[in-house]
């Protein structure tokens, strides 16, 4: 018995030694580090505090399935620390992206921060430590961030060495709020000084970024670009920069958008790290016709080389049933017609519920078989805003269920629901009993379930008062209008020789009026290029002969009603034949 006790004690000591002998990777400030971690295990990092008068922030961005959580403790280099969920000074345990900030007043003479990343499921992620200065972007690797109103986050990107012509794409995709991109080849861009940047995007929705070909006369000989992400309002976002031939990594359940001219392709990859999973890749056509190809062997799958494909007109979805093979899935989106699209890769493992992120004002497409359910997560960053969710069907009958208390929405558990035949619409007023609480001052997560009464194809969209709603070609958008208040929309056009037709229909008694501009993002009665103020319903037709007509541009739309009403907006192209 004594020998057995001694043996067990020896094993325990060995276990403790192995635990404390884990590798600690040292981080360089501003340098993004990619890593993988097995489920229920820790991966350790350390960052040396070089400026004791600056806060230190750690950002972890998941790149596929799984959820990395942050635990951290301050210490010194002489005695390594291994923080855990039960023994740490700081932590961030949210689902998906996590961030912690250590105020410089808490350093107390300690010179190092030890960081443990605990993997909930197998994890593929990046980590970066920021004290001041810029973050270096890795080609094709998304980086999560957040920025306050009228502030900037700074990044640098150096183009990988390639032979022959190429191009780069830089994009900041907001999950909440709205951001603008500014880019320079000479130094850090200042949004308030146009002389400091050469490229900019307008108010950014999902997919409005900057593309620069190597033939551009301003292309830097060093290959280095300087990037500022500016907060139009308080925002969270994902930023990326990639070469045109790079397979950009898709984050699990997070929509990613791109603009392509006819015949062009965009390349992506998704890392499935767990067994017993299904995988769904869906592309939503905002405008034009994107086609979808997937392979596990070809890095750039195409119409002539693929394992899975979907080439419908408009939206495309590929579902790989459980158990999908673990590994890297290479994805191509090819523009049959010039297109703006949104792409989402989503894995479902075991019996867990999978929530797809629903960005503010951006529509996502889905398909469900009878009694099927799809789940979404919408982050309300402005707790004082009304929020509207609309569900428009192409066919079938989807219903809408919503919870704000953290529970899972379904047919028997909901705070809001809409179960009409056909389209559904829910407005959550900021003063409602079930609305997001006004304190504490942090984001509120709204969970949404779409339940198929019959087999259905649908488009879902959620928006706050801050959003300029992104409209899809030919898909009606329903909304509530408040008396005397404008709601704003945007309709991107990427085709030639077609009239633009925009109609608003009053489904109540409010008499909505219609104002359009390609210059002002907020057109109204006094600032517009086109207007229609007829009783009940309005239609504006913009032919190619109109002097203000444009293609490869965005039409901004303002709608205002005299009384509270329910309206429907329809936008489409009409072909002009000579």
Structure in words:
With 578 residues, the protein is mainly beta. It has five domains: 23-130, Jelly Rolls, CATH 2.60.120; 135-246, Sandwich (Jelly Rolls); 262-350, Sandwich (Jelly Rolls), CATH 2.60.120.380; 353-467, Jelly Rolls, CATH 2.60.120.380; 471-575, Jelly Rolls. The chain is built from one helix and 43 strands. The strands form nine sheets. Strands 19, 20, 21, 22, 23, 24 and 25 form a seven-stranded mixed β-sheet that branches. Mean pLDDT is 87; it is low at 6-20.
Write the layout of secondary structure elements.
Blueprint: H1 2-20, E1 24-27, E2 33-37, E3 42-48, E4 56-62, E5 67-75, E6 90-92, E7 98-102, E8 112-120, E9 123-130, E10 135-136, E11 143-147, E12 152-158, E13 167-176, E14 179-184, E15 199-200, E16 210-213, E17 224-231, E18 235-243, E19 248-249, E20 256-260, E21 265-272, E22 277-295, E23 308-310, E24 316-320, E25 327-349, E26 355-357, E27 364-368, E28 373-380, E29 387-395, E30 398-403, E31 416-418, E32 424-428, E33 444-452, E34 456-464, E35 469-470, E36 477-481, E37 486-493, E38 498-506, E39 512-517, E40 530-532, E41 538-542, E42 553-561, E43 565-575
Parallel strand pairs: 1-3, 10-12, 19-21, 26-28, 35-37
Antiparallel strand pairs: 2-9, 3-8, 4-7, 4-9, 5-6, 5-8, 11-18, 12-17, 13-16, 13-18, 14-15, 14-17, 20-25, 21-25, 22-23, 22-24, 22-25, 27-34, 28-33, 29-32, 29-34, 30-31, 30-33, 36-43, 37-42, 38-41, 38-43, 39-40, 39-42
């Amino acid at each position: 018995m004594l020998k057995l006790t001694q043996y067990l004690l020896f094993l325990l000591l060995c276990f403790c030694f192995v635990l404390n002998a884990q590798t600690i990777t040292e981080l360089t400030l501003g340098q993004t580090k990619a890593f993988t971690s097995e489920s229920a295990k820790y991966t350790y990092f350390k960052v040396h505090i070089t400026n004791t008068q600056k806060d230190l922030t750690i950002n972890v961005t998941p790149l596929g399935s799984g959820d990395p959580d942050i635990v951290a403790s301050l210490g010194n280099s002489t005695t390594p620390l291994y923080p855990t969920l039960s023994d740490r000074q700081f932590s961030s345990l949210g689902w998906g992206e996590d961030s912690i900030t250590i105020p410089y007043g808490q350093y107390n003479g300690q010179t190092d921060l030890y960081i443990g990343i605990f993997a909930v499921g197998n994890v593929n992620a990046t980590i970066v430590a920021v004290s001041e200065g810029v973050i270096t972007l890795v080609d094709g690797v998304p980086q999560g961030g957040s920025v306050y109103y009228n502030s900037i986050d700074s990044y640098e990107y150096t183009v990988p060495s390639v032979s022959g012509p190429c191009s780069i794409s830089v994009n900041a995709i907001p999950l909440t709020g709205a951001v603008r991109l500014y880019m320079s080849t000479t130094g850090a861009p200042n949004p308030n000084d146009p002389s400091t940047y050469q490229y900019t995007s307008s108010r950014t929705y999902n997919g409005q970024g900057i593309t620069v070909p190597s033939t551009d006369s301003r292309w830097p000989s060093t290959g280095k670009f300087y990037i500022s992400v500016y907060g139009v309002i308080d925002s969270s976002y994902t930023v990326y920069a990639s070469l045109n031939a790079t397979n950009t990594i898709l984050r699990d359940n997070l929509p990613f958008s791109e603009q392509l001219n006819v015949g062009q392709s965009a390349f992506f990859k998704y890392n499935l790290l767990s067994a017993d999973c299904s995988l769904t890749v869906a592309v939503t056509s905002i405008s034009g016709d994107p086609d979808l190809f997937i392979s596990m062997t070809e890095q750039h799958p195409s119409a002539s080389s693929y394992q899975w494909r979907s080439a419908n007109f408009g939206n495309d979805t590929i579902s790989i049933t459980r158990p999908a093979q673990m590994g890297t899935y290479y994805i191509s989106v090819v523009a049959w017609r010039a297109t703006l699209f949104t792409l989402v890769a989503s894995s479902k493992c075991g019996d867990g519920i999978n929530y797809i992120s629903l960005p503010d004002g951006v529509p996502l497409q889905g398909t469900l078989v009878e009694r099927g359910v799809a789940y979404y997560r919408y982050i309300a960053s402005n707790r004082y805003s009304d929020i509207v969710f609309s569900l428009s069907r192409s066919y079938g009958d989807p219903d809408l269920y919503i919870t704000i208390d953290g529970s899972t929405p379904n047919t028997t558990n909901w705070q809001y629901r809409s179960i009409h035949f056909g389209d559904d619409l829910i407005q959550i007023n900021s003063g409602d009993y079930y609305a997001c609480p006004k304190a504490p001052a942090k984001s509120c997560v709204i969970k949404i379930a779409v339940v198929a009464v019959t087999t259905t194809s649908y488009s879902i969209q959620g928006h706050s008062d801050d959003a300029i709603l992104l409209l899809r070609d030919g898909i009606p958008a329903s909304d509530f209008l408040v008396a005397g208040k404008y709601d704003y929309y945007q309709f991107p056009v990427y085709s030639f020789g077609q009239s633009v037709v925009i109609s608003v229909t009053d489904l109540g008694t409010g008499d909505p009026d219609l104002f359009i501009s390609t210059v002002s993002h907020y057109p109204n009665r006094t600032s517009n290029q086109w207007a229609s103020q007829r009783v009940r319903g309005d239609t504006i037709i913009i032919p190619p002969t109109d002097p203000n007509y444009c293609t490869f541009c965005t039409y901004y739309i303002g709608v205002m009603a005299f009384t509270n009403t329910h309206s429907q907006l329809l936008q489409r192209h009409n072909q002009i034949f000579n």
